[in-house]
Design the sequence.
């Protein structure tokens, strides 16, 4: 089975800090990470490979530094990876991104399955998986939480729906997006880390994948961000430090104030 | 004010009679001071009445140092503010009230968020520098992060990373302490030493406390057993690890260290315990930048396997294959990724040499993977406590019995052999984990009934004697408190215990503070 896994680099979600004087965000260069949902996609791909044989290729569109994360994926069982990197890809929305990824997928050739995380934690759109399948003309299932049966021809998946679960059978080649219930990603081993340093890694520019620059990056992105802002936080916590009965009195008083 | 400050004990305060060691004491009064003035007022009131005083932090100690044997409890939980920051020669210092909780402190340092409203201008300026500067951390890392800084100083707590950074002691720059009679002394690192074995503290009122430093030689191991004592020692070291017997800390200044650029962790899965010890021995000599070396034996892994099977709360634990009998965790602190890689591979080579296979390892190179390995580490004591609580329901007299002894490097194999042979002879179930890099293992006996519990208690006494013979310490990080006082006598002998008594008397002539901690007032009591 030839499996492709899509990987996105996202900022590490550690606490954001403000400079006490300027009140601006302190950018401390904390390292970027693989989108957490994609780590489940990687694990599921590697499990399917272990079951059916074949190869797993990770693919990403991003800045050159994304290589580090793709090599991390290779330390966890991925065999090879592809990075699409070019100034022409910068500023892409989901449409332009899925277009670029589809061209990368075509470089890999006759894949059987593409696995994506159900969404990225920075953009939260959950659109890449379905859009990529449309670009490639293959069927898709989103929010898969368990693969019930798998063969070279088809998958039977359990997916999360708004009201519960659904079982879906899908013919390969196909694309699935996975939720975090699907597995517990493995940690790399020392031998995995050693492999990842030598593992096949290929970089493609927009021209090398034959991209139409008008469909890439900012110029290929119909999405317009009108405004971004930090929501007001209205929650407040009060710490009660007294004895049990003092605390009980204080809680009652708060209830009365609220009422 | 004093009637407000010192309250009679009531049901409301029942929790304050016990600590994490699960021992229960008794007391007549309790005070929750908010300031040094209130501490002094409480002490003076007790001093006049001749009332015993037990100081408490978060009561997370495992040796019952905070459990009162009568008298008045002074609980420090209301003194939980960070009161200043100082920036000198590139180093940052934080002034803490003793009730500051470690997890809160770590959070404040990590997020660089402090409540600076009451800070003076110099401290505020230091904070501005701090925010613009790189990352810093406070290195002592006891597993129980709800400990208070005062408690940590009182027992010289450590944790996994003390393998590289040392215990709490070297990171304490200054201490202010109120004596039983209310006088205030202070000591600062780099200022003030004993003259030979003569220690003299000058109180703020100009009076002096003169004491003889005990003449024993401390073990060359991780050590939290009794007073620090050395010829020409720094005075501040006498106050650290004094287990609440010399005075009440009112202010503690700690030193922060620059955060390492790269932190990687790796767990190595061994088929047999002997190989794991050979690995530790080899790796200590060949790999640089190692911050911690932790150990989990078959007993501990079995408890975890069972826990993962039974409870979804532990489902995030990695699967521990049946062939694994021992896990060793190594944490690497490095300047660059290249360096971390070299060191990781050096660990791999030592692992292979000791009979391991590199594919049988879990490497963590980002925070979320490190968190998973940390969860594994913390799940062990937590699961063992849950197991003991279950058994306690059948027999309420039993409790967990955990050893906290350390030996010098050359005795690592000997001490493990001793533990294994005697546990087997006594037919006792156990789970062992801890800081193998420091030859400091927490052997925890899991008794099924009172008879096994008592047998284990006797066994621990024989271990104390053997560990002393090996040049080790009877308590490496939990402190002696009340529960390990008998071990301290085994370790140092009555002559040196008498020297400690004399030292305490110089600070606390009425013998009011921390009664029952370290040693009794008179021999044999």
Sequence:
């Amino acid at each position: 089975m030839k499996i492709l896994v899509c990987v996105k680099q996202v900022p590490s979600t550690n606490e954001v800090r403000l400079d006490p004087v300027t009140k601006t965000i302190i950018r401390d260069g904390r390292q970027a990470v693989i989108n957490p949902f994609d780590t489940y996609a990687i694990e599921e791909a590697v499990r399917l490979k272990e079951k059916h044989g074949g190869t797993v290729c990770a693919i990403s569109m991003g800045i050159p530094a994304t290589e580090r994360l793709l090599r991390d994926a290779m330390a966890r069982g991925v065999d090879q990876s592809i990075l699409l990197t070019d100034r022409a890809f910068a500023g892409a929305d989901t449409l332009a991104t899925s277009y670029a990824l589809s061209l990368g997928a075509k470089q890999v050739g006759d894949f059987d399955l593409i696995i994506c995380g159900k969404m990225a934690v920075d953009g939260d759109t959950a659109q890449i998986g379905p859009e990529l399948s449309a670009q490639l003309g293959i069927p898709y299932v989103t929010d898969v939480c368990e693969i019930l049966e798998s063969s070279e021809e088809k998958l039977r998946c359990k997916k999360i729906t708004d009201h519960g679960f659904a079982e879906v059978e899908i013919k390969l080649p196909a694309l699935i997006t996975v939720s975090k219930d699907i597995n517990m990603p493995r940690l790399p081993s020392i031998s995995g880390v050693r492999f990842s340093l030598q593992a096949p890694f290929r970089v493609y520019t927009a021209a090398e994948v034959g991209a139409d620059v008008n469909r890439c990056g900012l110029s290929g992105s119909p999405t317009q961000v009108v405004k971004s802002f930090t929501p007001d936080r209205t929650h407040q916590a009060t710490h009660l430090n007294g004895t049990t009965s003092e605390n009980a009195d204080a809680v009652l008083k708060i209830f009365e104030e609220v009422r | 004010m004093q009637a407000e400050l010192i309250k009679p004990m009531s049901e409301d305060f029942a929790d304050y009679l016990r600590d994490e060691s699960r021992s229960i004491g008794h007391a007549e009064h309790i005070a929750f001071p908010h300031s040094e003035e209130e501490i002094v007022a409480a002490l003076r009131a007790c001093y006049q009445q001749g009332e015993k005083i037990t100081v408490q932090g978060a009561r997370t100690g495992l040796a019952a140092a905070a459990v009162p044997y009568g008298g008045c409890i002074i609980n420090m939980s209301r003194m939980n503010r960070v009161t200043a920051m100082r920036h000198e020669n590139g180093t940052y210092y934080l002034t803490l009230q003793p009730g500051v909780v470690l997890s809160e402190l770590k959070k404040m340092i990590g997020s660089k968020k402090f409540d600076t409203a009451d800070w003076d201008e110099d401290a505020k300026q230091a904070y501005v520098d701090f925010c613009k500067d790189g990352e810093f951390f406070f290195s002592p890392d006891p597993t129980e992060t709800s400990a208070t800084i005062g408690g940590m100083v009182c027992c010289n707590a450590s944790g996994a990373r003390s393998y590289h950074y040392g215990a709490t002691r070297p990171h304490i720059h200054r201490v202010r302490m109120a004596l039983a009679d209310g006088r205030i002394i202070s000591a600062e690192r780099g200022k003030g030493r004993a003259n030979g074995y003569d220690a003299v503290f000058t109180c703020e009122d100009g009076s002096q406390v003169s004491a003889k430093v005990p003449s024993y030689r401390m073990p060359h191991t991780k050590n939290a057993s009794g007073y620090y004592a050395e010829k020409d020692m720094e005075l501040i070291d006498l106050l650290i690890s004094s287990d609440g017997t010399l005075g009440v800390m009112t202010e503690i200044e700690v030193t922060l260290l620059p955060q390492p650029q790269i932190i990687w962790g790796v767990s190595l899965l061994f088929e047999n315990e002997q190989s794991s010890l050979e690995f530790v021995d080899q790796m200590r000599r060949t790999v640089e930048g190692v911050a911690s070396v932790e150990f989990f034996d078959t007993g501990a892994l079995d408890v975890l396997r069972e826990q993962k099977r039974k409870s979804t709360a532990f489902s995030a634990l990695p699967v521990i294959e049946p062939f694994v009998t021992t896990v060793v965790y190594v944490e690497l602190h490095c300047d660059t990724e290249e360096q971390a890689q070299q060191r990781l591979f050096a660990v791999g080579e030592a692992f292979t040499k000791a009979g391991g296979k590199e594919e049988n390892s879990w490497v963590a190179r980002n925070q979320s993977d490190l968190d998973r390995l940390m969860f594994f580490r913390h799940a062990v004591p937590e699961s063992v406590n849950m197991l003991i609580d279950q058994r306690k329901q059948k027999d309420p007299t039993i409790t967990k019995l955990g050893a906290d002894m350390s030996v010098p490097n050359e005795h690592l194999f000997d001490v493990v052999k001793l533990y294994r042979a005697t546990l087997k002879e006594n037919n006792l179930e156990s789970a062992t984990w801890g800081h193998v890099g420091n030859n400091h293992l927490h052997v925890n006996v899991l008794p099924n009934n009172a008879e096994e519990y008592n047998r284990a208690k006797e066994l621990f006494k024989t271990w104390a004697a053997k560990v002393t013979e090996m040049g080790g310490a009877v308590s490496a990080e939990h402190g002696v408190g009340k529960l390990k006082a008998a071990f301290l006598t085994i370790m140092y002998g009555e002559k040196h215990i008498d020297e400690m008594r004399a030292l305490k008397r110089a600070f606390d002539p009425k013998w009011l503070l921390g009664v029952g901690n370290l040693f009794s007032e008179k021999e044999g009591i």
Notes: Residues 25-29 of chain A have pLDDT under 50 and may be disordered. The radius of gyration of chain A is 22 Å.
